[in-house]
Amino acid sequence: MATVNKNLSNYDPNLVPNAQGSRFAIITAQWNEDITYALRDGCIQGLIDNGCISEDIMCYTVPGAYELCSGAKWALSLDIDAVICIGCVIKGETKHDEYISNAVAQGLMDLNTTQDIPIIFGVLTPNSHEQAMDRAGGKHGNKGIEAAITAIQMVDLSNKIKS
User: Which residues form the catalytic set?
Assistant: First the structure.
């Protein structure tokens, strides 16, 4: 989603289903922790602001974005309604960021297409640390909140379709 003219923390709470009774696992990459932990904290707050209680939010860390796929896969064994993956891959001087970003996106998509529990992609892929900070509580809000809202909406849709 383009964020040039959008604050990721601004949303209409009346359009978000109530998350009461839903359980979430948040898997956060430790690499770029100043960014990813801010995203995680925004995600937790977004879940709580929309009815989830803190006891229904389980947080785990993995070393880097590449390991988010394994963390998400293992989290599927928990009694949860959605997995939210939080990471940040900043462009560097080499193509390493492209390989990591593509692998993580494909790995999480593969889980989404083979599992019944939604896996939410909350991974930033900015060109700079500054752009990442702008999306982790800076001028563009906090993409972690967007990931929380997406998870709540997907759980609600899953419940509607399955009932």
Answer: 96
